[in-house]
Write a structure and sequence with these properties.
With 221 residues, the protein is mostly helical. Helices cover 75% and strands 2% of the residues. The chain contains 12 helices and 2 strands. Strands 1-2 form a two-stranded antiparallel sheet. The longest helix is centred in the N-terminal third of the chain and has 20 residues, at 6-25.
Length: 221
């Protein structure tokens, strides 16, 4: 599915080309020129510089990319791509990549997908960032997005893992209980083949639902 905004599409194509060029050249001049291209893209599409935006939290970024409660998913995808480009430049120079930078890219890619933008590269981008953050304790908001993303993609066993991590690390409030019950209720309506494609079985769903309810009860004690 192509992006509707031609200007954003052209900018992303330019970023992809520049990163590929830097990876081929691997010198300071190429790196400096790539940073200039990224900085120009930030300013053109957000009116703010790279340094300011990269220091904002994920929630702040999502907030400034939203108007009247509506998230601009194409611009969110662009900013996530720019953040991802920055991590790649650091990797090319064999420099440490701040996990906060990867986390913001992950949050934006997840939010973009949850808001209905279904681009071919999103699963790969999200998967690579998850792998890069494997040793990093994801915050609650990111885990919630990851839970909903896996659920949306049909990765039910992964969604269940995220659900239990949320329950274990952050406890069970009313919202968490509601999300979990809705998850198992929806799973119970699916056919065996579809469940198995997502890593679960009808019997596993029943077991999981019982364990979830038991965990809720234990957390309330």
């Amino acid at each position: 599915m192509p992006l509707r905004d031609d200007m954003i599409q052209r900018t992303i194509e330019q970023i992809v080309q520049v990163i590929a060029w830097v990876m081929g050249q691997r010198d300071e001049k190429a790196y400096a020129e790539a940073v200039e291209v990224i900085e120009a893209a930030y300013r053109e599409h957000t009116g703010s510089g790279r340094e300011l935006l990269t220091h904002l939290s994920s929630d702040d970024l999502i907030g400034i990319l939203s108007t009247a409660g509506r998230f601009d998913r194409e611009k969110g995808y662009l900013i996530a791509t720019l953040l991802r480009a920055e991590t790649t430049l650091l990797e090319v120079r064999h420099m440490a990549v701040p996990p906060e930078l990867q986390l913001k890219a992950l949050d934006l890619f997840l939010e973009v997908r949850l808001e209905g933008l279904d681009l071919d590269d999103l699963p790969e981008q999200i998967g690579e960032l998850q792998a890069a953050l494997a040793e990093f304790s994801l915050p609650q908001a990111t885990l919630l997005r990851l839970f909903e993303y896996r659920r949306l993609q049909g990765g039910f066993v992964g969604a269940e893992d995220a659900l239990y991590e949320l329950l274990e690390r952050f406890g069970a409030d009313d919202e968490m209980a509601s999300r979990g019950r809705a998850f198992y209720r929806d799973l119970a309506q699916l056919s065996g083949p579809k469940l198995r494609a997502g890593g679960l079985s009808p019997e596993g769903v029943e077991v999981g639902r019982d364990e979830f309810e038991r965990a809720l009860t234990e957390k309330d004690k």
